[in-house]
Write a structure and sequence with these properties.
Helix content is 37%, strand content 18%. It is an alpha+beta fold. The chain folds into four domains: 217 residues, Heat Shock Protein 90, CATH 3.30.565.10; 148 residues, Ribosomal Protein S5, domain 2 (2-Layer Sandwich); 82 residues, Rossmann fold, CATH 3.40.50; 106 residues, Four Helix Bundle (Hemerythrin (Met), subunit A), CATH 1.20.120.790. Helix 10 runs parallel beside helix 13 and helix 21 crosses helix 22. The structure holds adenosine-5'-diphosphate and magnesium ion (MG).
Length: 625
């Protein structure tokens, strides 16, 4: 009070680059003025953390006066805003160093470059350049900072600036330690004097700051940093509330994982498995590129969707990762390339897959819900995360010819129940369970009671064939031509003798020409006359269909037509041919059989010919009386 005469007020000039920086901040770059509040709260919280830390070793710090915390006071009539903390405070030298210069070299150049590229800086960036404090000039024309360092013997100072090139410092009386920042809001920023608006912003950005934030005497951040607690201290109810808040979900999560790691890197994480996949994720997996948990550094949020924390195939998880091993002011680029992040990602991925595995073993119902919702996404990991490939393979679940609808079998179970004689793991891929079950290629396996995995998830054909083998048993599509069939002769269904067989096969070859690779006698068919299979190196037909849908370039794969020579149609056809090689029905029947096989594959492009041929065959059939 007594020192408040003009002679003790000292004027300082900002460094040249500081002027430019201020100009950029206020006039060009920032589009979200509300960010100023987050920055001021984050500084106050830093100051409180520092004093808390220093107090561990220094008994002589100034008294707190009150419980540590951040107090905000607004007055919508006067348009005044005040934020107060009882943290570490600043000495005169610190004031000059911290609020008068740009801390980081290169910051100005970087910001100028952004401006030249006419890029907008989203609010998230400001704090990353060590210039967060100056964002306050977006909402006011003049700021007053009153501060007193917690060091013993320090005195109070008032720093004042209109952000125009100079600032003043004077000595003042200040009772407790800490910092009070006050200003009058610009008319256009008057919303920040409204309690509800300020509360909203605090909740949005600072809800989990580790110190109480009060607004006009009322505490706003009710929830503390849950992830900092030990697992036993977590209450499901609270954890669920937290999930709903950060995920914007109205349902409770399916399950959550709490991780606390100390060692090469230290971090805590709280990750949630939603009950359902957001539809946009399933239809556009590119959505995953921009997702990720929130990244906190020392309890301050750095990125709200940090993609670098998790591999893409796990980015449907929602939550928080908090580490002490990054600096608060890291830029996105630095986060991305930081070895700390790589380590966190690696450890987290392992923990998450372990969590899924435990769910599978201990809570199969939950696991099933999870797998139905996110299985298609997790499977992508098989092609991208080779370190965890084996774990991912164990998580796979399949419907099979021996499971009921919506029941699953693992590869381990499959291998466990096939006999030693069965050397291969068979799968069949297509668009739906019912379509798969009706397919002629399955007849042999059904007849012999051999279990076949039914792959109806569209991503299956991109990932499952790449497994190659499991427990030394190769995975094989049942539509491959080179399967070892063990056939015993069946009563009443004699295959055609060789002298009749060859002409029939030749007849098919001649009629179908280069639409097919070959025509051979089938050993897999029981009830159907013909089927299409793939040669050794051909694409799986489901894969072919997917590629077509994605309009990808691919070689037109030719199929092999297998003919069931014990089938009445084929036997009759042979007789028809022997009687009259010129019978026009022969060609019609062969075309129709071929199209029918295509239809099973989902590979018949037009049904026009198929239907008109069908009508002429019906006509021929109805001639008989
Ligand atoms: P950053 O927080 O990234 O360092 P800021 O521009 O937000 O950059 O703040 C600059 C510096 O001013 C801080 O590093 C800190 O030393 C000092 N400071 C700002 N606010 C406070 C406060 N409330 N208490 C103590 N020191 C502060
Ligand atoms: Mg700051």
């Amino acid at each position: 009070m007594s020192t408040n005469n003009s002679s003790s007020v000292q004027e300082f000039e900002y460094k040249a680059e500081m002027k430019q920086l201020l100009d950029l901040i206020v006039h060009s770059l920032y589009t979200h003025p509300e960010i100023f509040l987050r920055e001021l709260i984050s500084n106050a919280s830093d100051a409180l953390s520092k004093v808390r830390f220093d107090a561990l070793t220094d008994q002589n710090l100034l008294e707190e006066g009150a419980d540590p915390g951040v107090k905000i006071t607004v007055d919508p009539k006067e348009l005044t805003f005040m934020i107060e903390d009882n943290g570490i405070g600043m000495t005169e030298e610190e004031l000059i160093a911290n609020l008068g210069t740009v801390a980081k070299s290169g910051t100005l150049g970087f910001m100028q470059a952004l401006k030249d590229q006419q890029k907008e800086l989203d609010g998230n960036l400001i704090g990353q350049f060590g210039v967060g404090f100056y964002s306050v000039f977006m909402v006011t024309d003049e700021v007053t900072v009153e501060t007193r360092s917690a060091r013993t013997g320090s005195e109070g100072y008032r720093w004042k600036s209109s952000g125009q090139g100079t600032y003043t410092i004077e000595k003042i009386e200040k009772a407790g330690r800490g910092t009070t920042i006050s200003f009058k809001l610009k008319e256009e920023s008057k919303e920040f004097a409204e309690e509800y608006r300020v509360e909203q912003i605090i909740r949005k950005y600072s809800n989990f700051v580790d110190f109480p934030i009060t607004l006009d005497g009322r505490q706003i951040n009710s929830v503390t940093a849950l992830w900092q607690r030990s697992k036993s201290e977590l209450k499901d109810e609270e954890v669920n509330e937290f999930y709903k808040f950060i995920a914007n979900d109205f349902q409770d999560p399916l399950d959550y994982l709490h991780v606390s790691v100390e060692g090469m890197v230290s971090f805590k994480a709280l990750l949630f498995l939603p009950k359902e996949a957001p539809p946009e994720l399933l239809y556009r997996q590119s959505e995953l590129e921009n997702r990720g948990p929130q990244l906190y550094v020392k309890k301050v949020m750095i990125q709200s969707e940090c993609r670098d924390l998790l591999p893409e195939y796990l980015r449907f998880l929602v939550g928080v990762v908090d580490t002490e091993d990054l600096s608060l002011n890291v830029s996105r680029e630095i986060v991305q390339s930081s070895p700390v992040m790589a380590k966190i990602r690696q450890i987290l991925s392992g923990k998450i897959l372990g969590w899924f595995d435990t769910l599978a073993k201990e809570q199969p119902e939950k696991f099933r819900t999870f797998y139905k919702a996110f299985g298609p996404i997790v499977k992508i990991g098989l092609n991208t995360d080779f370190t965890n490939r084996d774990k991912l393979i164990e998580l796979l679940r399949f419907e099979s010819t021996k499971t009921a609808v919506d029941e699953y079998v693992t590869l381990k179970e499959y291998v466990g129940r096939i006999g030693d004689d069965q050397k291969e793991i068979y799968y069949h891929s297509g668009s739906s369970r019912s379509q798969l079950l009706a397919h002629p290629n399955l007849e042999y396996f059904q007849d012999k009671g051999i279990e076949v995995l039914l792959l109806s998830d569209p991503v299956d054909v991109f990932v499952i064939p790449s497994i190659h083998e499991y427990e030394k048993k190769p995975l094989k599509s049942i539509e491959k031509a080179d399967i070892d069939f063990i056939n015993e002769k069946k009563e009443g269904s004699e295959p055609l003798p060789e002298n009749l067989l060859q002409p029939v096969l030749a007849l098919f070859r001649e009629t179908l020409g280069d639409r097919i690779e070959d025509v051979v006698e089938s050993h897999r068919l029981v009830n159907s006359p013909v089927t299409l299979v793939s040669g050794k190196d051909a694409l799986d037909s489901q894969m072919e269909r997917m590629m077509k849908m994605m309009q990808a370039e691919m070689p037109a794969g030719k199929k092999i037509l297998e003919v069931n020579t014990a089938h009445p149609i084929i036997r009759n056809l042979s007789g028809m041919y022997m009687a009259n090689a010129g019978n026009p029905l022969i060609g019609t029947v062969i075309e129709q059989l071929y199209d029918g096989a295509l239809l099973h594959e989902g590979g018949l492009d037009s049904t026009t010919d198929f239907l008109s041929r069908m009508n002429s065959l019906i006509e021929a059939a109805t001639l008989q009386r």
